[in-house]
Design goal:
alpha+beta; 8-stranded mixed β-sheet; binds N~2~-sulfamoyl-L-arginine; binds zinc ion
């Protein structure tokens, strides 16, 4: 999506070379003297030369001779000179004395320009120590980014240091040092920096994606600046270290400033007139796939002659390999607003996707909260497109480092030419995203759940959940420091209970039964012996970062048949006229229209329209008419404690009508009767060809009254000629599911004075049964809740 050129090349800058810049005009001295070949270097006066006592003088030569005299006496400080024109000169004290004797008309503008220069240097230093956010109001060439990083290091010597990973290859004749900045809280004997896990961010593998180095620099800047005032940043920086390389492709970046704004690759001379390797196709993990990279030199995704053929990717690889404390990696790109986890080289996710499954939504949410910008999170290959040989596939696939690509703003309007007023907002939202990732890396433990998390949660049933906490960052478990927090989704504060510790990393959390059909929210927390905590999900209880599960009503089967035994179904009905493929209880054999297995587990048999596969798909299917499968009469009257609207029928069905020469000509009506089959009401008419077992559930009272003589029938048929029809039914149930009336304390089917007496007795005895609100204590609030429920009564 981002490979095409979104718009015509725009010239965004003017080259300064050849332009007259008066040496003392404001701004001319504003930047230190960068003398690289990067087109971003600006003119200045070396500050090692002192102008103490030099004057700035405006003089007007009346003759050529006077003009030549002036030129000999001092340094011209104006752009243009000439006879009769007022021209500014910088004059030494001696020259000034000499000038006075010549009689050439002049005025002294400033008697000691060193005071001007000093004032300017002071101003630069003052701004550097404030490190004005205004720096992020525009994009900057390579040299200025490096200067800015150096200023950060100078301003925060105990927290920031610069590092370099080596030099770029010099494909355009100039090699650049590939620099980064390391950011963490001060090193102390109690909390040595060398013990902290690291996050590695690199940006600008793709030269034209200017917002990426700007964002990386912004993140470094803000982490450092906020350390003093923001407790969250301080807590984070005291436990992790950030390693940030804003420009991973310096030669390409310089080239976008000097020559071709929309250049993407590095600057390798491919020897055939074409230039450049796509660095983000050059990493060795799954390098060389034609899906997602190109073998052609001229292509924008040219992967290079071999994996790691490029100096830039070699430098980054060697740095990462030599940094065993790196736990997480983000490769910043633009554009598209995407958070992409592995894999990029293939569709699908890695075998251990747990960190990405947990982080993707939380990073997305944190970014969203800042400026309401939607970033889409998901695996790179399926969310964007296939790309092989990318950096994050390598960091995760090869090094086990959690690796992401973040595609920054925008979503596709300005594209690579993102207006500079979006640098700060993009930086702020991504700072929030990387904070969340940093906190995940910083937390003392990670969590896993040997039995999974509850998938179904019947009302009033307490859930026991096994929670394993394993070391993530210098975490030593505090045995009494495990808690589970929960509340009804409708609101209220989270209440917590201690999780029972088994002494070897495993806790058991117990969440008490809940109000019927009220979804529950919950999260886990484990403390370390040094007083830190880890949570699952890590950002809990931030909204959107807690676990949530619907609870179901109490369930009671009235009839359940897995077709493993004969439960009285009728497989042939008067009037059925199909000549083959009639309903029978059997073990299905696989062909294009039939499954290999029944639905039940365990189990082998289902009701099916002849289970034999035959030699071709049309063998043993339904031919020439109808075949009907009818249930026995089922007592579906609501059992004690349930109402008529709480009775359901459910079954797994198979239907295939898309094979053969005349597909899609038939349907299968499913009907229900409340009068033992005298009259029938349609439940559904099956015409979808999923060729899969599909579970359907219906509330009986939406169709007929649930009586003692309920029947269901499946009318499979081949009405057209030449169409192949196969059908099956398994795991048929009629059941009650509902919320027992809470005022019926003694469960005798009614709510009356005896319920009141029984509750009062249990309450007086402090019996657990009187814990009416399920908060594990019997207290006055249970009494209030019971009285409220009793007032409401049962229907
Ligand atoms: O193609 C790339 O290298 C990245 N996009 S960009 O527009 N910045 O060039 C995306 C790489 C991430 N992964 C996948 N696309 N799977
Ligand atoms: Zn990119």
């Amino acid at each position: 999506m981002t490979l095409s050129r979104p718009r015509a090349f725009r010239s965004l800058f003017v080259l300064l070379a050849g332009t007259c810049i008066p040496v003392l005009a404001s701004g001319a001295l504003g930047a230190p003297d960068n003398t690289g070949a990067d087109g971003g270097a600006r003119q200045g006066i070396p500050t090692s030369v002192s102008y103490e006592g030099f004057a700035l003088v405006r003089a007007t030569a009346r003759t050529l001779r006077e003009q030549m005299t002036l030129d000999a006496m001092g340094q011209m400080a104006s752009c243009r000179g000439g006879v009769g024109v007022p021209v500014d000169y910088i004059l030494s004290p001696q020259s000034l004395a000499a000038l006075r004797m010549t009689g050439i008309p002049h005025t002294v503008l400033n008697a000691n320009i060193e005071t001007l220069l000093r004032a300017e240097r002071d101003e630069i230093a003052r701004r550097a120590s404030q490190r004005d956010l205004a720096w992020f109001n525009n994009y900057h060439p390579l040299a200025e980014i490096e200067t800015y990083l150096a200023q950060l290091v100078a301003t925060y010597p105990t927290m920031a240091s610069s590092f370099n990973v080596g030099t770029s290859p010099g494909n355009d004749g100039v090699q650049y040092t590939m620099r980064g900045i390391a950011v963490s809280g001060p090193d102390t004997p109690q909390n040595p920096r060398a013990n902290r896990p690291q996050l590695f961010f690199n940006a600008c593998q793709h030269a034209r994606e200017w917002i990426s180095p700007a964002t990386a620099t912004f993140i470094a800047d803000q982490l450092l600046e906020k350390y003093a005032t923001d407790a969250r940043v301080r807590a984070l920086l005291d436990h992790v270290e950030f390693l940030i390389i804003p420009v991973s492709n310096p030669e390409g970046y310089v080239y976008t400033w000097t020559s071709e704004r929309l250049w993407r690759k590095n600057r390798r001379n491919n020897g055939d007139g074409s230039r450049g390797v796509d660095l983000n196709r050059n990493w060795s993990y799954q390098w060389g796939l034609n899906s997602g990279s190109s073998p052609s030199t001229g292509n924008e995704t040219y992967r290079g002659p071999s994996a790691f053929s490029e100096g830039e990717t070699q430098r980054l690889r060697d740095f990462i390999t030599a940094s065993p404390r790196i736990r997480a990696h983000i490769d910043f790109h633009s554009y598209g607003q995407l958070i992409l986890s592995p894999w990029s080289y293939a569709l699908g996710v890695p075998p251990d996707n747990s960190a990405f499954a947990e982080m993707n939504p939380q990073i997305r949410q944190a970014i969203l909260n800042v400026n309401l910008k939607q970033y889409t999170a998901g695996p790179g290959g399926s969310t964007l497109y296939l790309a092989s040989g990318t950096a994050p596939d390598w960091t995760f696939g090869q090094r086990g480092i959690w690796g992401w690509t973040i595609e920054l703003r925008d979503a596709g309007v300005e594209g690579f030419i993102l207006p500079p007023d979006q640098i700060i907002p993009t930086g702020r939202e991504n700072l929030a995203g990387v904070m969340v990732l940093g906190e995940y890396v910083a937390q003392p433990f990670r969590f896993s759940f040997p039995d999974g998390l509850p998938a179904a949660w019947p009302t009033a049933t307490a859930q026991n959940i096994r929670v394993v906490a394993s070391n993530n960052n210098n975490g030593e478990i505090s045995p009494t420091g495990g808690r589970v927090y929960y509340r009804p989704a409708s609101g209220g504060t989270f209440v917590s209970s201690v999780m029972v510790y088994d002494g070897s990393g495993q806790f058991t959390a117990t969440i008490p039964g809940q109000a019927c059909l009220e979804p529950i929210q919950y999260y886990f927390e484990v403390a370390s012996t040094d007083g830190r905590v880890a949570r699952y999900p890590s950002q809990a209880p931030v909204p959107g970062s807690v676990l949530s599960r619907a609870t179901s009503g109490t369930e009671q089967n009235l009839f359940a048949d897995d077709f493993e035994t004969d439960r009285g179904w009728t497989y042939a009905t008067a009037g059925d006229n199909a000549t083959t493929g009639r309903w029978v209880r059997c073990d299905p054999e696989q062909n294009a229209a039939q499954p290999a297995d029944d639905f039940s587990n365990p189990g082998t048999l289902a009701a099916f329209t002849d289970c034999r596969a035959g030699g071709s798909v049309g063998d043993f299917d339904i031919d020439n008419g109808t075949t009907t499968l009818t249930s026995p009469a089922i007592n579906a009257t609501p059992p004690e404690g349930f109402t008529a609207s709480e009775i359901y029928v459910s079954y797994a069905r198979w239907y295939s009508n898309d094979q053969g020469s005349a597909p899609g000509q038939d349907t299968m009506p499913v009907e229900i009767s409340s009068n033992n089959g005298a009259t029938w009401t349609a439940l559904e008419t099956v015409n979808e060809n999923l060729n899969a077992w599909t579970v359907k559930t219906f509330r009986v009272s939406d169709f007929v009254t649930p009586t003692a003589t309920l029947r269901v029938r499946f009318v499979a048929r081949d009405l057209g000629s030449g169409s192949v029809v196969e059908a099956g039914v398994d795991d048929f149930r009629v059941f009650a599911n509902g919320c027992p009336c809470r005022a019926d304390f003694n469960n005798d089917g009614t709510s009356d004075f005896f319920d009141y007496l029984d509750f009062a007795a249990a309450f007086a005895a402090e019996d657990a049964a009187a814990d009416f609100n399920g908060d594990s204590v019997v207290d006055f609030f249970d009494y209030l809740d019971f009285v409220a429920a009793f007032d409401e009564g049962c229907e």
